[in-house]
User: Fold this.
Amino acid sequence: MKKIIVSGILTITALNLSAQSFEISPKLSFGTGRIHSKNLTESFNQRNAIKSDVLTWNVKQKFGFTFSIGGCFQYNINQNIAVIGELSFNSLRQKIIIDYFENDIDGSGDGDKKTITSEAKIKTTWLGFPLLAQYSFGDEQKLRIMGGLEFMFMGVPKIESDETKTTETYVSNALVDTKTEVARISTTLNEFKSPRTNFLLGIGTTFNVSDRNLYLDLRFHLPLTKSQMYTTDWVYDDIAFKNNEVFSVWGKSDAELDAPQYRLDDYKLGTIDIVVRYVLFKK
Assistant:
């Protein structure tokens, strides 16, 4: 009986070992993403409400383009289960657009109308370390699902602020003067937390190309880390207009004074991308 048990254990172990393998492949991905703050929108909405008859702010935190390149190590525990470790260099470019309008004309028709249009281009890079578990359905492994964590070591984001302020002066409801000012400045958003963590979910399929696996995945990088995002560059404070001042020390402070229930400390970085991996080495 003991011999039978030992023989069974050895047979199972041998089968498991024979099923194990590993793969090394380069990785390329592209998609969309953004650094987003819900409180930023709510803060401007609250500030609108303070002077709802004369003041309007509108904020659009747009999705931008993401790109990454790197490598992947996949350890196949058996035909269906694998663990994946990756290293990649990633970049994101996006825009945050803020428009402002203020009507200071009094009952006599005297005063100013001010319009500020602002575009903030945010650029950032990071090193990503996804650690994933993967399950493949069926013998041909055409459908795969995966999940895990991604650790992100950020470069310092850059902001390029481009703003135009137009002031129209009225006397007795008649336009008498129009003045246009332009403010442009580039600096770093040196207050942005690193490292960051995302929860990663994905689905994929596998193709055979020249007797090697080509993996194609759709992945969702769901942000878990919140942080502040602003610059401590005092020159930026001096040059930026009312809209993009929110990315500076004093502008952030003013926004939180006007709307204290919406602190600007919830910026998240999330992406959606398509990942292509082609196996160069398998053992």
In short: The chain is about 15% helix and 60% strand.
